[in-house]
Fold this protein.
Amino acid sequence: MRFLADENCDFAVVRALRGAGHDVATVKDLAPGSTDDDVIRLALAEHRTLLTEDKDFGQLVFASAIESPGVADAVLKLVQREGADLTRRFVVVQPGRIRITERS
């Protein structure tokens, strides 16, 4: 799968996904300092699933149409289990909880 990691995304998640063979680009490398709107546009333009820890994205997406290996492991397991089915879905991973919402 193809991912775009926002600047605030825990790099342990990036390393875990890359280690599992996924294509993970980072906003830090491609477009540092981008606005949330620009990050969404970049993810869409590059056909990448956005990874972020910024809670504002949830509001943005729905309104507009310390290292944590436990989270990295949870994300990796979710991607391995759900794979491409995550495309066009809004996913929130929190300790002990995963929410997947369908996008229209």
Observations:
- The chain has a mean pLDDT of 81.
- Residues 2-102 form one domain.
- The chain has five helices and five strands.
- Residues 27 and 33 are 8 Å apart (CA to CA).
